[in-house]
Design a protein that fits this description.
By secondary structure, the protein is α/β, with parallel strands linked by helices. It has a domain of 116 residues: Glutaredoxin (3-Layer(aba) Sandwich), CATH 3.40.30.10. Helix content is 36%, strand content 19%. The chain is built from 5 helices and 7 strands. The protein has a 5-stranded mixed β-sheet with strand order 5-4-3-6-7. It is elongated and about 75 Å long.
Length: 181
């Protein structure tokens, strides 16, 4: 009897190990210094959007059910109003499943920036996001310059200086090219 159980356990262990080894490799998350991952996501009207190119982008992953996410939205809206005309694009990617809850939240908070819907969390997973909110500040060349985890006071001096620094960088220099004097 003991031999049968040990045989069954051995077979189950081998099948489990084979299945584990056969899994595809996990995607690498996007990190500071890396290139921002492309995406194609719908807005609340179903229009598809991709990562803006040639702009400074604040890419925020969030959800309506997340208290820290809700807390940071008013200051993010204020940051957008202050810097949008200077070249900052704020994109808030929601991982909410229910688009009606998301639409109601956007109306209630009168969010002035682009809100996209990642209902299946594919884009958030491609960025390695699993805590909310998480934000990536991306320069004009598509390089992630800052990765922030948790709620942020977007109008704090340190944040606005960082945003202004990115906005003041030349948009024509590609990484690895020299700037002529």
């Amino acid at each position: 009897m003991l031999t049968r159980w040990l045989t069954v356990i051995g077979i189950v262990a081998m099948v489990g190990a084979g299945a584990w080894l056969g899994l595809p490799e996990a995607k690498k998350s996007v990190s500071e210094g890396g290139v921002a991952a492309p995406y194609s996501l719908p807005d609340l009207k179903g229009v598809m959007h991709s990562l803006p190119e040639g702009e400074v982008v604040l890419l925020n992953f969030w959800a309506t059910w997340c208290p820290p996410c809700r807390k940071e939205m008013p200051s993010m809206a204020e940051l957008h109003r202050k810097y949008a005309a200077k070249g900052l694009t704020v994109v808030a990617i929601s991982v909410d499943r229910d688009v009606d809850d998301l639409s109601a939240f956007v109306r209630e908070y009168k969010l002035p920036f682009q809100v996209l819907h990642d209902a299946e969390s594919k884009t958030s997973h491609s960025y390695g996001v699993f805590r909310y909110p998480e934000t990536f500040l991306i320069d004009r060349q598509g390089q992630v310059r800052y990765h922030l985890v948790g709620a942020v006071e977007w109008m704090s001096e340190s944040i606005t200086k960082g945003v202004e620094g990115l906005l003041n960088e030349s948009g024509t220099n590609k990484p690895g090219t020299e700037q002529k004097s």
